[in-house]
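From the methods appendix. Each design record in this collection lists the tokenized structure first, followed by the designed amino acid sequence. Records were kept in a plain field format so they could be parsed without special tools. The example shown here is representative of the layout used throughout.

RECORD:
FOLD TOKENS (139 positions):
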């Protein structure tokens, strides 16, 4: 049975191990601390038989929701873990009055794009721009 719940600090090492197993970068505690001061109820963990099977990180800025870092342990994929995590997160966004949720999918990740489209997410022709803070342009 899959149980979705909010992240708690005792989960950190198991979540970090899951991110590593799923081929994702591990967010440092300092970044998560800052995120959790804003909307801790949007960082969710899925447990299967007391093992952390999946995780999703959501944010809400008061205008738009954002889904970040959905990851499922390879041993638990294709069992509905990701779908349950997203459904729970969407319910939490709705409870906050969030009118739209966005996410990013790398163009080469066709499996992820199919997953998100099956859940009703529609690709947009936006161009992502990013700037690392603390870096001087041109150096």
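DESIGN:
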């Amino acid at each position: 049975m899959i149980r979705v719940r909010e992240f708690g600090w005792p989960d950190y090492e198991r979540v970090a191990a899951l991110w590593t197993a799923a081929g994702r970068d591990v967010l440092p505690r300092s970044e998560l601390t800052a995120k959790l001061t804003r909307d801790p109820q949007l960082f969710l963990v899925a447990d299967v038989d007391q093992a952390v099977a999946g995780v999703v990180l959501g944010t809400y800025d008061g205008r738009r929701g954002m889904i970040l870092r959905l990851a499922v342990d390879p041993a638990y994929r294709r069992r509905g873990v990701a779908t349950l995590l997203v459904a729970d997160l969407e319910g939490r966004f709705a409870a906050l009055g969030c009118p739209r949720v966005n996410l990013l999918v790398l163009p080469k990740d066709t499996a992820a794009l199919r997953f998100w489209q099956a859940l009703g997410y529609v690709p947009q022709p936006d161009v992502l721009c990013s700037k690392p803070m603390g870096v001087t342009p041109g150096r």
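APPENDIX NOTE: The radius of gyration is 15 Å.
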